[in-house]
Amino acid sequence: MSQSHVYPVNPEQASHSLIDKAGYQRMYEQSINDPETFWGEQAEQFLGFFQPWSKVLSGDFSKADVSWFKDAKLNACWNCVDRHLPQRADQTALIWEGDDPADSLPITYRDLHLAVCRLANVLKQRGVKKGDRVCIYMPMIPEAVYAMLACARIGAIHSVVFGGFSPDAIKDRILDSDCQSVITANQGIRGGKVIALKDNVDKALANCPNVHSVIVVKRTNAEVSFKQGRDVWYHDAIDQVDDQCAAEVMDAEDPLFILYTSGSTGKPKGVLHTTAGYLLSAAISHKYIFDYHEGDVFWCSADVGWVTGHSYIVYGPLCNGATSLVFEGVPTYPDASRFWQVIDKHQVTIFYTAPTALRALMSMGNEPVQATSRQSLRLLGSVGEPINPEAWEWYYNVVGEQRCPIVDTWWQTETGASMISPLAGVTDLKPGSATLPFFGVKPELLDADGNIITGAGKGNLVITQSWPSQIRTVFGDHQRCVDTYFTAYPGYYFTGDSARRDEDGYYWIIGRVDDVINVSGHRLGTAEIESALVLHPKVAEAAVVGFPHDIKGQAVYAYVTLMLGVEESDALRKELVAFVAGEIGAFARPDIIQFAPGLPKTRSGKIMRRILRKIAANETDNLGDTSTLADPSVVEQLIANRHNR
Ligand code: 6R9
């Protein structure tokens, strides 16, 4: 990885960017040295409040009890919709582009307001109140955005569950936060394939007795089964309610949403974000990182089921009164030009996607890109995993034709908004580096003993002071929040990532240091996949690790010990892969299953994952210290039978 390869800001970009290098320096320093003044001023600029705050920041990391904009009152939906009506009722808020290139629909801020009010009234009519949790399990259609905003409007807390999750995964998430209503669609369509969303919900709800309301959007003409009294069609329900609905007055620290994410241990965590701080971080980062200007068409290709979709399809862009594109499809359907055709069709100016999509498209050559114009593009973004310099260069040279800066944005579900990223038109770029911290973010690198590394070096990435969209709690388990993020290094937020800092102070994210793997930008806990595998009656024990994969970044390698007497076979391998897909979702399917009569364990019985990772990566000549192994012959056997030669 060449550190010296620098792409300086080109003067043309700099001439129209919102701020310059000195401006960034000034704002950054104020945000760190005097956060209360900085964030108070930004909140006034970016948000509308019904009542001002009494204190900008209180609390600290030790108990993870921070509070931003104490006593202020506002409503996130009102900020994203109503506030814009006087100036931009006729402006397009959302451009929906369907899976079929023939389907698209512009939605103005006026349309958005009416649709959100109607759905909010339906929710109220069906008994949803402020503070209630609502599960949203939707394809990428405008109604998914309406659903999130309708919840925010009435003060309900949405929990969006990605449409690729299985019935069991939906059930776990519904039960964990006691969602009593669900908004879904009869089916979804992606890449020409149908996804049985309502069937999945029905299966999940067989074990969720508290759910009393299911609102079903009719995305296709397919019939689905309905439970009388519980299930209603969206189109019928919105026809019977008023199109005006006052936005609930919410406290700055009232919860806005829960989003489940994988951790290194146990079940997924319900990361909770609150209203004012989250919205402010989403909006300010959207504006400065993407150098957002009036008239831009902004496209974030993520799914609303992940945090990237929350912050950069919905809350950030809409809070700024932008035009945000919602794409239902996939990059390669009907063909590998699809992304670039959508850009031409809607004159997208800012495009934000994941390295895994870029690598997949890069492997198909330049022709599908060059068959399109892309002249509207002026800026590119990347998120979800480290972008390898080859993919960066391809994005820069082939997609952006050396005209568009790339903002490589490092952040997490828990951080709510981008934390380390270039500002387009301000920051000189280095391929593969997320570059410099955003306003209010003070990163440090710590060594294994928790000492701060100064200057260039490598260590565990922590954040030293609160930022507005900091995770507030893990739903229902505050102690887990404290233990996971604020205990390893007291006084710091621990990210779970390691990083390198170069001589210019640029950050290069290396990857997770815990047992979280990143498959195609999807965060998976190895523990979740292991738990799924051991539920299978023929499996005695399982250990899962990630291994490097050209397109996906990382792929899933599972070592499985079968029950005594069970025969190893390819058929069983397939069965286990399908079983994991059923338990979690297709995206969590193991790529490789190696049957392992024994797993490498320490004498105290701990599985030595470090060794399993090396075997999976085919780096078996240097296994490191193996002196604590209870039975070294197990390792020899695993190496002899490895599957990735
Ligand atoms: C936004 C999002 C978070 C984890 C994070 C890190 C990895 C995200 C990255 C990146 C290198 C980037 N990650 N962006 N690594 N460079 N630009 O992806 O949230 O799904 O919670 O994942 O993803 O490892 O810790 P989330």
Automatic annotation (TrEMBL):
Broad EC category: ligase
PTM annotation: Acetylated. Deacetylation by the SIR2-homolog deacetylase activates the enzyme.
Recorded catalytic activity of this chain's protein: acetate + ATP + CoA = acetyl-CoA + AMP + diphosphate
Residues bearing the modification N6-acetyllysine: 606
Domain (Acetyl-coenzyme A synthetase N-terminal): residue spans on this chain: 24-80
InterPro entries named among the record's database cross-references: Ac_CoA_lig, ACAS_N, AMP-bd_C, AMP-bd_C_sf, AMP-binding_CS, AMP-dep_synth/lig_dom, ANL_N_sf
Binding site for Mg(2+): 534, 536, 539
Positions annotated to bind ATP: 384-386, 408-413, 497, 512, 523
Binding site for CoA: 190-193, 308, 520
Protein name, per record: Acetyl-coenzyme A synthetase
Organism: Pseudohongiella acticola
Higher taxonomy: Bacteria, Pseudomonadati, Pseudomonadota, Gammaproteobacteria, Pseudomonadales
Gene: acsA
